[in-house]
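Field: sequence (string)
Field: structure_tokens (string)

Example rows 1 and 2, in order.
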Amino acid sequence: MKKLFLVPFLIYSVSAFTMECDPQVEVSDDIENLLTGVKEKKRDWFAASEEKVLKAPCRKTYPDLATQEAYLKRVAEGSPTKQTTVGGVQLEDSPIMIALYRDMVGYDDFNEPPEESQNLAAKYSIGPDCKKVQCALGKIFGDKRAKEMLYMKQKFGINISPFTKDSRQSFNESELGHIKKAIMDFPPHLLPLDENRSCTRLHKDYTLGLGVLANATITFANDWNNYGPGLMEATVLHEMAHNFGSDKKIDESKDWLAASGWTQKGEEWVATKDNFVSDYAASNPHEDFAETTVAYRYDPEKLKRLSPEKYKILKDKVFGGVEYTNAQMCQDSNLSVFKGINKIKPGLASFNVSSIDPEMKKKLMSYCARDSLEAFIDRGYKPYEECIQGAIALELAKKQLIKDNPSMSPETIEANLFNKLNGKSAVEAFGINFPAAKKKEIADYSQKMMDEYELDAFPKMSTYLEYKNKEDYCKDWASEYSYQRLSSLEKNINNDLLLYKNGSKIAERFHDKCIRVQKSFPKFREFTNKDYSKLLR
């Protein structure tokens, strides 16, 4: 039985969300029992074999470096240049590039950065002549890797910097190549991942646990690259799938639990049906979801045979009708979506923002939440206006889809469209280009939406003391304590994130606004409702 230790028995994470509860199999009897159970149930070790992964249809090529450079240039030119210092590094770049830099080196306004990312200016000789983000990151990681990191973070929401956490090291070129391939195996509407999702490799002296190659925080162990390229890529796809399962709340949804009869008893999950694509999928609903996603992408016929119900859930609620059963199915969205988008294009010139009702307005802010955060701080942030264009196009396309396909489920319609635009313009998301006059109209409307947000925020910034001068009043009025009530607003900007990561920036901006308006008064007085409109922009 000693030879059994050579069998790769658990390659993925045991937990969804961000927990790291690694599986522990410590003695040979446990391993023998586990293998016996697999043999009796005739399950595979992996959701898809090496051959199935490598020969799967619809595997797309990752964009080349020239394409990445052109994309980053558009991002950098999105808004006026700002100056700041991050960890001793002097930067002069667009706000979005500076935000990417801060994410890459582990700095935010709340937490102490990891030890590895401190004093980078001195460690890598980043002088005042290197003020662009690409230059600074190039000094640290090399020019090519810096561009790849920035592109992957902005385009796909995946941060591969080793400086985001302690005890991490950079991926080598081969490992990064497998990550790229796995990313391209998802349809584009599933990306980017929400917020700043770290994807890292443990330092060689650390481990995740016996037999564990990765966990749901997208952290890879050192044994990960001991397997074939197909299984490495399946591991990446599995861990990314955990994020879709939790973000969309599918892996504990009523339909998903019913597909295998999952019930929870204490801290344990028990299933009444044996329809799993691998033994690891039988661990709990979260691993079931991630493993089933791997099978859907790389071995769909196997999944159809074992569980048609799960196949349909993934098809409708995750992949948006996109299937991978043969090479003819390699469109990223089904034909009805393209027909719907093409139908709305002729009417774009006559679109009027006055047709936007309250429900649609709420959707626009929700789709563009990340860019709305940036616009709240910097009202000249152009990607926000471009994202609103994309969100309007999305809503128009959705209405056309509903009209043309009354039997299509709401979940399928949502999954087919870019329901997480995260900065995509209408051109990037749908190939839609509004006429210049409409772009101006939408830009004005997007700024009015932000005006409404700010006007709702100002009265909630209460003060409780009697003030005798303008400076003290403005200092307290704009303090983090006084405007934490922003969290009570319901405008679909993530207020918790807004305060968590950008508190000091917002305080400075509001303080300057307050002083500007106070100087217009003959003498100090507290603001009234009539004064708040003077604070805009």
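Row 2 begins here:
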Amino acid sequence: MHSVAATDLLTSLQRQAQLSPEALANLKQWLEDPSLAEFRPEIQSLVDGGEWAELEDAFYKHINIGTGGIRGAIGPGPNRINTRTIGEAAQALCQFIDARGEEARQGGVVVGHEAREGSVAFARVCSEVFAANSIRSFRFDGVRSTPEISFAVRHLHATAGVQITASHNPKTDNGFKFYWSYGGQVVPPLDGEFMQLVSEVRDIHRLPLESGGEEWVAHLGPDVDDAYLSAVGSLSIESSRSATIVFGAIHGAGKTNVLPVLERAGFSVQPVPEQLEPDSSFPTAAGKLINPEYREVVAMPVALTERVGADLAICSDPDADRAAVATRRAAGDQRLDLLRGDDVGAALTHFVLSRRKELGLTSPNDLVLETFVTTSLVADIARGFGVEAISDLNVGFKWMAQIIQEREDAGRIGYFFATEESIGYLAGNFVRDKDASIAALLVAEMASALKDRGLTVWQYLDELYARYGCYRNLQHLVELPGKTGMQVMREVMLGLRRSPPASLGGRAVVGVLDRLAPEKSTRAAYAIGSGDDMVTFVLSEDQRNRVTVRPSGTEPKLKYYIQLYAPVPSGASVPSVREPLSAEALALAEEIVNLSGTVIGGDLPASDQSQVRAWREEWSAGVRRLV
């Protein structure tokens, strides 16, 4: 499309009066800038189709950075993932590296990708940008897992690493996730510095690979893969291999880390053949969903496990940093049940600490880490073993990586184990992010040791509840896509802060913990996307009973985390405590979600009530999911 056509299209858009001034201003730039000409046909197609909501959401703002970097739907516009926004992130990373001197420039950047649409092209853009800025990139020969990129940064003594991924987001998304020299993601104030650099990028420098850029690319051989797989294998703490496993890669990178780790360790593992090969179309996905936290996503691996009589179904997400686990509640059952991340994290914490104690491997520097929205049972177990636990972290493994690096810098290297409720697990010191292959190895060993005792993971959890008290943790999600969805989430968070409930589930709210600074939580100042945007309604003085609300840092959804606790009296059965607690947690989740709709726009004047009604209707239409 030539410039006259671009002008005509812009004139048509202005005449239609369907878009906000912000979206129109950004569209003007994208239509008039010659370097963005490749996107004009897609924009024209959206206009021809009357896709006004899509155009508004794609152009009203620039995509922001969340707990996992930059992620979003693929498409044209500054609020989408495309060669322009990926190029901006890569160019900003070059400037970030430049600011740290010549030694940082010399270290180079590991560039990886998973199987999603556009991943190969986006990784190529990164290498071309690095080449134009005289920074070399290290490239694998195909799809690799996100944790292997974290490993490779440290293994190669690189300055940074970039993985093209949207992790567990819908299959229509992609993203840019970067690691710093210690293998973890940057934390404040560095993440703010990086995002500021992204927002200031105007010119992207690219040196095409075929025109000299290839000279700045170092192609990696199998030695990095072997070193990574061997490092994961070194975490083995159990010799039994009695558990049989079905593995679902869900068309992602799990074939490159989870499967070889389990095979090298000597487990009997059967992959789901229809899902083994990486495939950008994700043909067996549950609609757009490829997050194995959801039962419908793991239905195929679970069905195969039941059919062949295996003990475990282990499923990794597209970039193979998260692992879902399903197993029978009792050994003779036919049906498998999906464990929550809290369940797996607590069981693994007890298993690894008890086995390491039996093997005489404990150290005063051992450390267990978890996020605040992960079950408190993890910290209870760690402290029961005399192991230090940090249990109040913000969501995101970057905070755990920061602490692990600080311990390493201080010479306090012990056994590190980290977990979060969203099926992320880490052990050891060679990867600085969650890792599905580490999780798979430890879960398979735990299941084998339990099988040898005639137990399942579910029964093991009941043993832990009997000892430490019963926790019921669940997560309720409300999905609110698009610009309007963002506005609704903003109103809910403002409303809950303005009018916190006096009681929930018949329990008095004894305190409110708000991680967001007061100056950031006013109507004028508040913006969705801050990593510390999390408010907790405390229901008991020991904080074991609580409800936490936060917007996702990577997807358009509000997340509600419910935790209830009750001791198991001597002589009482665990089910007699667990079942009523579960029912109470479900009712409490429903109550806080319903309450959220009533606080929308509660401080706005009568003149805004039509807008408030529209927001509340959007809230009512949001998709609810229970995890």
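free_text_note (row 2): The chain has a mean pLDDT of 95.
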